[in-house]
Design goal:
The complex is a heterodimer. Chain A is mainly α. Helices cover about 65% and strands about 0% of the residues of chain A. Among the domains of chain A are: about 30 residues; about 60 residues, Helicase, Ruva Protein, domain 3 (Orthogonal Bundle), CATH 1.10.8.640; about 30 residues. Chain B is built from 6 helices and 7 strands, in the order ααβββαβαβαββα. The chains are: A mainly alpha, B alpha/beta. Chains A and B meet through α3 and α4 of A and α5 of B.
């Protein structure tokens, strides 16, 4: 191959790569997460710490968990959780500790009790209800299909008549009265069959 | 029966509508308090005016007090402060909880704006704040003579809030000579 065209090809390849990278950068959304640099005496505490931050809600900002939020209160609570973990508190104890202060609101996964049974139960109840409705209608549909003698396709005479009726309807408006009576006749005929 | 089932959508619609309507006036920022009916958490923190002096629940034991969370960085506290001065003049005992603040700035604030507090607790790291479930300032707690938290208000207390939420309860707790 000619060296000149080779260089040209390489430039093309480079350009297409640059385009791809730019597109990728434009499409990617930045991940917003606030994470302090925390150190643990025992590294096995870190995943539990992360897990707790995911599951606990920032009391001030409401729609963020403690790991998302950078409000001062979340900062304090992260420090508090870190302290409790280092002191050997279990996940349950830490959640109870925060619940007793900030109410159940702070748990993103609230326990099932008198106030939250509906929250937990509603999806299951709705699913069961939906399945029952689906079952009911599918059974009714099948029964009806079995009970009816079957819908016959219109024969050629009927088809001609139908075409004539439809043709009349679209051409003039004066025959509307006659048309509608024809339609009624057709319907009554069908039900007779 | 079949005709009645036609009303199901209407009934659902009315039910949902009335539920949503009843929720309209509620403040979604307001958290249910976990501490109503619970004793005020024990603490030992320095007083704002004197770093050497430690204060605790014993300092307001046997009295009906308001505990007011405030800070110089809190804008709404400026508005509330004027009102608290008036309330203190009427004889209501108020304890300040200076929350995550700078001591010098807080003392300066009390000097220029007046001091409605019996004393202020200096909670620079917010540890008592966490025990109380504080998530912003101002907040006000009504504590009875047995040290039990009876009411909590998140946000500014003014005449309307006092009359609606605090006055009756306060009068009941101290006797009838209340504002």
């Amino acid at each position: 191959m000619h060296p000149e065209s080779n260089r040209f090809n390489r430039a093309l390849v480079l350009r297409s790569w640059l385009k791809k990278v730019t597109l990728l950068l434009l499409l990617s959304t930045p991940v917003m997460a606030v994470e302090d640099v925390v150190s643990f005496s025992d590294e096995s505490l870190r995943p539990r710490y992360q897990q707790l931050l995911e599951e606990l809600r920032c009391p001030k900002c409401q729609n963020q968990n403690l790991s998302d939020s950078n409000s001062p209160i979340s900062d304090d609570l992260r420090r508090e959780i870190h302290r409790l973990l280092e002191e050997g508190g279990s996940d349950h104890e830490i959640k109870e500790y925060l619940k007793s202060r900030y109410s159940e609101f702070i748990l993103y996964r609230p326990e099932v009790n008198s106030a939250t049974w509906f929250l937990w139960g509603a999806p299951v109840a709705l699913l069961v209800l939906g399945l029952l409705i689906l079952f009911y209608f599918s059974r009714r549909g099948r029964q009806r299909l079995e009970a009816s003698p079957g819908v016959k396709a219109p024969n050629s005479a009927e088809q001609q008549r139908l075409a004539a009726l439809l043709g009349n309807q679209s051409s003039t408006n004066e025959n509307l009265g006659a048309n509608s009576s024809d339609t009624i006749n057709l319907e009554s005929k069908e039900t007779n069959q | 029966m079949n005709r009645l089932t036609l009303f199901i959508p209407l009934i659902l619609c009315v039910a949902l509508g009335s539920f949503l309507y009843s929720s309209l006036g509620k403040d979604p920022q307001e958290l249910p308090s976990a501490l109503i009916g619970e004793p005020f958490p024990a603490f030992s923190l320095p007083a704002l005016s004197d770093p050497q002096r430690q204060v605790g629940t014993a300092d307001f034991e046997g009295q009906v007090v308001l505990v007011n969370v405030w800070a110089t960085w809190c804008f709404a506290c400026r508005i509330e402060h004027v009102w608290l001065n008036d309330l203190a003049e009427k004889g209501v005992k108020i304890i300040g909880l200076n929350y995550k603040d700078d001591r010098d700035m807080a003392l300066e604030w009390l000097k220029t704006r007046g001091n409605p507090y019996q004393f202020s607790i200096f909670d620079s790291r917010g540890s008592l704040g966490i025990d109380l479930g504080v998530y912003g300032a101002p907040e006000t707690y009504l504590v009875d003579a047995n040290g039990i938290i009876r009411h909590r208000r998140v946000g500014v207390v003014d005449d309307r809030v006092w009359n609606n939420e605090f006055r009756d309860l306060y009068q009941q707790l101290v006797g009838n000579d209340a504002p």
